[in-house]
# Entry
Amino acid sequence: MKIYDILSALEAIASPHLQESYDNAGLIVGDLGTEVSGVLFCLDSTEAIVDEAITRGCNLVVAHHPIVFRGLKRFNGTSYVERTVIQAIRHNIAIYAIHTNIDNVYRQGVNAKIAEKIGLVETRILAPRPDDFEIGAGLLGNLPKPMDETEFLQHLKKVLKTNTIRHTALRGKTVRKVAVCGGAGSFLLSEALRAKADAFVSADFKYHEFFDAEGKLVIADVGHYESEQFTIELLRDIVQEKFPTFALHLTEKSTNPVFYF
# Structure
C-alpha cells in the first residue's frame, strides 16, 4: 500500500480541483510512492500530531487544514509551521491536507457529517455551483421535528460537544429549517437568509456580522474546531470503505487552540 493509494481513495470523493483558489490542499510533505505503515487522521497538523504519528507507527498524516497555507521562505524553526514541517521531513512522515475540496462535496462532505450529527434530513447544498448542484458551500436541511430555540441550542451543545455557543437574540419561534457550514461560514449568511432558514450553525462570526441576521434567523456560532471535529471520522470512513483492514487511526489529541475560562 502506497501513499498514492490512500490519497486516491480520498480524492475519488473530493477531487483536488474542487478546492477554492486560495487553498493549499494536497500532499504537502512526502512522496506518493512511499509505502504506508499507518495513517493518522487529524484536523490540524501540529508538532504534537507528528509526535503521535511517530508513536503509533504512522508515516502518513491526513489533516483537514493545510499546515502550509502561505509560502515559506525559511525553514529555521521559528514558527510552529516550520517546526512541524521540519519534524515530519526528519522522521519521513508525509502530510496531506484535504480542505475546501471536502468542504464542497455534498454526499460525503464536511457539512453532511455535521448535518448527520445534528440529525438533519432532506438535505441539499446551500450555495451550489451553477454547473453541479451536488458541489458547493454549506448545507441546508430540516430537523425531523421542530424544536424551540433553547431546546435546539441545548441539542447543539450535546451533539457537537461544546460548552459555549455564541448566538444572536432568540426570536421566540421554533427551529425546523437549519443551514450549516463547517468552519468560518459568515460568507454564507445571505444564502441562509435567502433560504429562509430558522437557524444557521457555523463559526468564526465577527461582532458586527451578528447584526446582519436582522432577527430573521438565529446564528449559532459553535466554534471552528467544534464544527469540524467530526471530519476526521468522515475521512477515516472513506479510506476504511476502500481498505477495511488497513491501519487507520483517529488522533487522540485535541488540536483546538481556543480555550474558554
Q: What stands out?
A: The first strand starts at residue 26 and ends at 29. The chain has two domains: 3-102+230-250, 104-228.
